[in-house]
Design goal:
InterPro entries: Enoyl-CoA_hyd/isom_CS (IPR018376), Enoyl-CoA_hydra/iso (IPR001753). Belongs to the enoyl-CoA hydratase/isomerase family. This is Enoyl-CoA hydratase/isomerase family protein. The chain is of the alpha/beta class. The protein has ten helices and ten strands. A six-stranded mixed β-sheet has the order 1-2-3-5-7-10, sandwiched between helices. A hairpin with a 2-residue loop joins strand 1 and strand 2. Helix 8 packs antiparallel against helix 9. The longest helix is centred in the first third of the chain and has 17 residues. The protein is globular, with a radius of gyration of 19 Å. The mean pLDDT is 93.
């Protein structure tokens, strides 16, 4: 598959997706269509067990391309536009494989939301997240910001459009790792490589559990997780993991 706004590299069960739309990796219709295609493909690829998402240059993504806004006078323009915007985020959220954001620079508006759709955040010391919708008379991103930041910090970020830097995100427990920009992709790929060594079906079940149980009460959420354990118990990879542990050897997983 060829892409005009993204680059894809796969090695050792880790896919690295790089947003590459100069000058600031802004998101337009072509980008959204391509990110859906690429994540749908990675969702099904047996040679991919974890994904790193980053940006080319010194910007993760400066957000939505304001030159690509729908025509307010055209009936149906906004519903079509909004549906594609949601799809560009949902494909990351719904991908079976864990996605690690390597936030190498500015992640603004839709760029911030895209980073927050990932499972794990690795941020550069030079990076920042910012939701600038109140600066340009728009709205959006509250639910995504709320998932990662405390209530007061989430409201501060949304109401003021203030930049939250990489070190601040790490201090606030919104990011797992904070390193210099030149090391951010390497750090994210290291986490992805570690994930790729685990039982693939178990990792997918863990991601589903995060998705399904997010808004469930504790009792119902844990019951769902127990159902996942039952389903995994009879799989080839779980049996291989148990044998390898008993035999003190490295397991060989097949994804089934």
């Amino acid at each position: 598959m060829s892409f005009s706004t993204l680059r894809l590299d796969v090695a050792d069960f880790v896919a690295t997706v790089t947003i590459d739309r100069a000058p600031v990796n802004a998101q337009n219709g072509a980008f959204r269509e391509e990110i859906v295609r690429i994540f749908d493909e990675l969702h099904d690829r047996d040679d991919v067990r974890a994904i790193v998402l980053t940006g080319a240059g010194k910007t993760f993504s400066a957000g939505a391309d304001l030159k690509d806004r729908p025509d307010r006078s055209a009936p149906g323009a906004f519903p079509r536009h909004n549906r594609l915007v949601r799809a560009g985020f949902d494909c990351v959220l719904e991908c079976e494989k864990p996605v690690i954001a390597a936030v190498n620079g500015a992640a603004i508006g839709a760029g911030c939301v895209l980073a927050l759709c990932c499972d794990i955040l690795v941020v550069a010391e030079e990076s920042f997240l910012s939701m600038t919708e109140v600066d340009v008379g728009l709205a959006g991103g509250v639910k995504h910001v709320r998932r990662h930041l405390g209530e007061s910090d989430a409201r501060l970020m949304i109401y003021t459009a203030r930049r939250i830097t990489g070190p601040e995100l790490y201090r606030m427990n919104a990011a797992s790792v904070c390193v210099p920009r030149e090391k951010v992709v390497e750090a994210a790929q290291g986490i992805a490589a570690e994930i790729a060594q685990k039982v693939p079906l178990a990792v997918r079940a863990a991601k589903r559990s995060f998705q399904v149980t997010e808004d469930l009460p504790l009792h119902e959420g844990y019951r769902y997780e127990q159902s996942q354990t039952v389903a995994l118990a009879s799989t080839e990879d779980t049996q291989e993991a148990l044998r390898a542990f008993a035999e003190k050897r490295k397991p060989v997983f097949k994804g089934r």
